[in-house]
Amino acid sequence: MVVVVEVIIVVVVVVVVVVVVVVVLVVVVVEVAASEPVLVKVVHVVGVVVVVVVVVVVVVVVVVVVVVVAVVVVIVVVVAAAVLVIAVVVVVVVVVVVVVVEIIVVVVAASVERVAVVVELVVVVAAVVVVVAVVVVIVVVVVVVVVAAAAVVVVVVVLVVVLVVAAASEAVVVEVVIF
Description:
This protein is an all-alpha fold. The protein contains 3 helices and no strands.
């Protein structure tokens, strides 16, 4: 029952708004037909409204794009950090396993020299893996930041172009109506 009442209220409000808009439009059309200066004013007002609407839409788009880019950058940085942590953990586990295996081999076969060589090799490989992982993470973060900055620059340029075109169009419309 409450839902039905709410629907009725919404429908009534919408109908009233539509009627008011239609009446205003009829009055404006009558005034426009009666007087050219009014026509110029109406066209000027319509042009300004169009510019304002375009500006609002573009600003909303810019805000949405910036927020999306920021979220993507945060996600990529978090993922890159997670990859780095996983790489380091894997390297540490591999080093520990190899060292333990080699210690067992030393105990069994008493080959101390061989163990030392393998341990050194494992340490070098682990260091290389960590360095590569860090470089990859840095490169990914830099690429994402550059792409995000480029996206923001493109959006700002588009915003400026749209504003200039909208302002120029509104001025041209007013000038054409005057002459």
